[in-house]
From TrEMBL:
Substrate binds at residues 120-123, 213, 244, 274. Binds 2 magnesium ions per subunit. Residues 7-199 form the Fructose-1-6-bisphosphatase class I N-terminal domain. Mg(2+) 1 binds at residues 93, 117, 119. Mg(2+) 2 binds at residues 117, 120, 280. Gene3D superfamilies: 3.40.190.80, Fructose-1,6-Bisphosphatase, subunit A, domain 1. Pathway: Carbohydrate biosynthesis; Calvin cycle. This is Fructose-1,6-bisphosphatase class 1. InterPro entries: FBPase_C_dom, FBPase_class-1, FBPase_N, FBPtase, Fructose_bisphosphatase_AS. The gene is fbp. It comes from Bizionia gelidisalsuginis.
Length: 335
């Protein structure tokens, strides 16, 4: 039984029996993510004081200028998972290829792979606005004890065993699911402990917030343009409120608490949108569905898309069910 103010450590142990596969391995894995999140949170919180803001000088596989904090968070999460020897592979938004762990060790019995967006919302770092981390966990599909292959990472989102995010906001929160609902934990930075502050999080069935980079409006498909105009129309509980932070984790977190829809459509500039299926859309879609919300690419359920490459991008619409359903109707009509 979860109870408010339970620590994350206590919660993980007490809820272990709800895991699809019972073993301490997944618990240890989530514990490692908890540790890395605390380290990154500490660094994010003093970003203005130390030499950690600004560009790192490299361009990542996504074609983006890496920020120093992108690199720092990537290193911290990878190091923590590697050092504890609890995963057999890691894929990251910031790495060209997946990382194989202990491929030479035939006794390596690790069953899980982790996919991660170490620092989400990089463009917000320098201006002291919330950023996040997103993670996704699968059981490997190739035999235990052999090196991981690309097949272990290109699994449909519906195969995730756990997913979550950390939001480094006014407070640091870790929100995650293992397929039995969504729970949120707030970090008390004075003692470095996460406490259950948001048990059983759920999207309201309907909402009145829409989140989209409207500066790209001219490039959006007709159905999305029509839906945005619908959001702005004076009728029923509309016009809706527009809120866009530019950091998926923060926009999602707000919409889950208040009720809303997040949209990153394809456009004439970006034919598959911008968000990455494996590091961003799948984990957020799993959390959304576990929280009574919905996530789609406008037509298809995100979790049923068969990935074909590591850094694949897809259009992403996610949030309160009624709002995503209406958006899909507009896309269907507008094409
Ligand atoms: P990341 O910082 O991990 O590269 O992700 C940025 C993503 C996402 O967080 C955000 O919602 C979106 O990019 C914002 O993109 P635009 O600036 O194009 O609106
Ligand atoms: Mn990036
Ligand atoms: Mn991101
Ligand atoms: Mn990122």
């Amino acid at each position: 039984m979860s109870r408010k103010n339970q620590t994350l450590g206590e919660f993980i142990i007490e809820n272990q029996s709800s895991f699809k596969y019972t073993s301490g391995e997944l618990s240890r894995l989530i514990n490692s993510i908890r540790l890395a999140a605390k380290v990154v949170s500490h660094e994010v919180n003093k970003a203005g004081l130390v030499d950690i803001i600004g560009a790192a000088g490299d361009v990542n596989i996504q074609g983006e200028d890496q920020q120093k904090l992108d690199v720092y968070a990537n290193d911290k999460f990878i190091q923590t998972l590697k050092n504890r020897n609890i995963v057999c592979g890691i894929a990251s938004e910031e790495e060209d290829d997946f990382i194989t762990i202990n491929s030479q060790d035939e006794n390596n019995q690790n069953k899980y792979v982790v996919l991660i967006d170490p620092l989400d919302g990089s463009s917000n770092i320098d201006v002291n606005v919330s950023v996040g981390t997103i993670f996704s966990i699968y059981r490997r599909v190739t035999p235990i004890g052999t090196p991981v292959t690309i097949d272990d990472f290109l699994q449909e989102g519906n195969q995730q065993v756990a997913a979550g995010y950390v939001v480094y906001g006014t407070s640091t929160m870790l929100v995650y699911t293992t397929g039995a609902g969504v729970n949120g934990f707030t970090l008390n930075p004075a003692i470095g402990t996460f406490y259950l502050s948001h048990p059983t999080m759920e999207f309201p069935e309907n909402g009145n917030i829409y989140s989209v980079n409207e500066g790209n409006y001219i490039h959006f498909p007709q159905g999305v343009k029509d839906y945005i105009k619908y959001c702005q129309m004076e009728e029923d509980n509309r016009p809706y409120t527009a809120r866009y932070i530019g950091s998926l984790v923060s926009d999602f977190h707000r919409n889950m608490i208040k009720g809303g829809i997040y949209m990153y459509p394809k456009s004439s500039k970006a034919t598959n949108g911008k968000l990455r299926l494996l590091y961003e859309c799948n984990p957020m879609a799993f959390i959304a569905e576990q929280a009574n919300g919905k996530a789609s690419d406008g037509v298809t359920r995100i979790l049923d898309i068969k990935p074909t490459e590591l850094h694949e991008r897809v259009p992403f619409f996610c949030g309160s069910k009624t709002m995503v359903n209406t958006l899909e109707d507009f896309i269907q009509k507008g094409k």
